[in-house]
Amino acid sequence: MSLTRLNIDSFRNILSAKLTLSEGLNLIYGENGSGKTSVLEAIFFLGMGRSFRSHLSQRVINNEQDNLTLFAQLNTQERTTKVGLRRARNGDIDVKINGDNVKRLSTLAETLPIQVITPESFSLLFEGPKSRRQFIDWGAFHSDPHFHQAWAKTRRILKQRNQLLRNQSSYSNILFWDKELVRYAEVVTEIRNQYVDSLNGLLKGIITEFLPQVDLKVSFTRGWDSKTEYLQHLQNQYPRDLASGFTSGGPHKADLRLRVGNLPAQDALSRGQLKLLVCALRIAQGKLLKQQLNKNSIYLVDDLPSELDAKHRQLLLKQLTETGAQIFVTAIDPAAIVDSLSLPPERMFHVQQGKITVIE
Ligand SMILES: Nc1ncnc2c1ncn2[C@@H]1O[C@H](COP(=O)(O)OP(=O)(O)OP(=O)(O)O)[C@@H](O)[C@H]1O
Ligand SMILES: [Mg+2]
């Protein structure tokens, strides 16, 4: 699957762009502030209905305009899909797939599995469990159709349970919700656990290329102690949860442990190595999705050259292109990418003050 056309209107400093894309490697280059990241952000926005840079969606609408519109044509072997999105400053959002209105934004995400690698996203992965959980859930969501609903239900029940805790409900009142919670939490946990297992197999080979000296161990922790059934755990924790007004253990606390030898990865690796580790994780996810569902991901790699030496830029580009996925990379200096490739990029775009020109 790949995007063959992309139209961007009133998105950040890009007033209007109509791009014909390559199904392989697309290089986007230009000066600081020209609009490179904005192009990647527009693709992500179309797939996810939100930005990877800002929680405030109206920030991405061009300052002078009231609406942004994005349109893309997606090609798979079997069919062509047209995806359109319009977002107004007042919050209204309109999503169309092949002309039909779509209600759930997850419908878009299912259509477009997008992987983002930015200088910010890679440090995020080492700051707190939330982004590591999101990393697992990207895969869980794409690899198992039951995940989305089970996770949504889990979160809804947790909210309900926390409300009851804050109202000082008796355990017999909470028990009804706990039984429901356990039902969905088990589905979520099982899918996540299996996903991390499958990912581990693929990751080894990629790590051997990127970080041959690194003895990496990736494991999944489910969010409550590993020896107790969840219902029992909830009951044991009830007095503490009642005091804090919050459910302390559960799938909302799941995490991915990344260790090198006996240390957490962030303490054992350099910044460049951490970037390579995140790239390896994302590449493994893309490869797994391809293996499991024959679905290609789309890679958005912002500022690919930063923090990497020539040898590792070359290795990373090789691994990325080998996934067979469509790739968008940005760089200030195009030579930093071109010189690391054995063949020139299939398409190059030069961005200047929000205007995008294709380089023939
Ligand atoms: N809502 C908006 N309306 C108009 N312009 C905006 C808006 N939001 C951001 N900009 C401007 O868009 C420009 C492009 O930003 P972008 O982050 O895409 O640049 P970039 O090419 O990735 O730069 P860098 O190399 O520094 O990462 C910036 O100058 C920014 O000030
Ligand atoms: Mg940028």
Automatic annotation (TrEMBL):
Gene3D superfamilies for the chain: P-loop containing nucleotide triphosphate hydrolases, RecF/RecN/SMC, N-terminal domain
TM spans (from-to): none
Residue positions binding ATP: 30-37
InterPro entries attached to this UniProt entry: DNA-binding_RecF, DNA-binding_RecF_CS, P-loop_NTPase, RecF/RecN/SMC_N, RecF_2
SUPFAM superfamilies for this protein: P-loop containing nucleoside triphosphate hydrolases
Keywords assigned: ATP-binding, Cytoplasm, DNA damage, DNA repair, DNA replication, DNA-binding, Nucleotide-binding, SOS response
Subcellular location: Cytoplasm
RecF/RecN/SMC N-terminal domain sequence ranges: 3-338
UniProt xrefs under NCBIfam families: recf
Function summary: The RecF protein is involved in DNA metabolism; it is required for DNA replication and normal SOS inducibility. RecF binds preferentially to single-stranded, linear DNA. It also seems to bind ATP.
Family listed: Belongs to the RecF family.
Protein name: DNA replication and repair protein RecF
Organism of derivation: Shewanella intestini
Gene (name only): recF
